Amino acid sequence: MIDSHCHVDFKVYNKNRQEVISHAQEKLTAIVNSGATLGGNRRTLKLAEEYENFVYPTLGFHPSNASKSDANIIKQALAEIDANIDNAVALGETGLDFNGLDSEEDKNKQIKLFETFLEMAAEYQMPLVIHARDAEEKALEMVKKHHSIPQVIFHCYGGDLQTAWKIIGEGYFISLSTIVCFSEHHQQLAAELPLSQLLTETDSPYLSPFKGQRNEPAFVEETVKTIAKVKSISAEEVANVTDTSAREIFGF
Fold it and tell me: Which of these, 11, 21, 71, 173, is most buried using a 10 Å CB contact count?
């Protein structure tokens, strides 16, 4: 099993990060840690060095941060991604988050930065990890214009089934997080969509499958079990297929 998207670099893990990663090593073959800020990218690269061949880094800038960050910080983040591109397995997370966002100016900031990442992914021939919330159709419309991007993952997907089928129709992947353990909508997505186009993730520290407990990569097992249950197949099959897909996309 692979947790294809988490944030173990976040400060909520400062007191027991090593323990959390040890738990993951007992159950998983790899975790993909996604950079979401300038500092997050730096921490992600450091973790990948410390846990070589287990923690793999993606480098990005979260759309919600794009709306409120100083232009110089974004510029510096992009420069550092450029400089470290050979150490990353993908670009992202990046994308669009229009949830509760009324300001056209803020939306345009997100769109502009997402476009920059789309161009980088095409230029460097890197897979792209997309965060799209209340903007799934727009994100899909934008990414479709960049046919040369080798692979695209809509991470922690929560949009409608119709858009999900369009995403899969383009050959892209949909990653389901631990939210699938307690959300009927996500269980419907898991039941309907082909396993061959699905990945598993936790999006730790968010969306814990256990009430009152912080999420962690080892809990991706719960995502795998839930997908297996709604598809009436074995957890082993889900684990094998999603593990293989993640390795092919990220190239490790």
Answer: 173
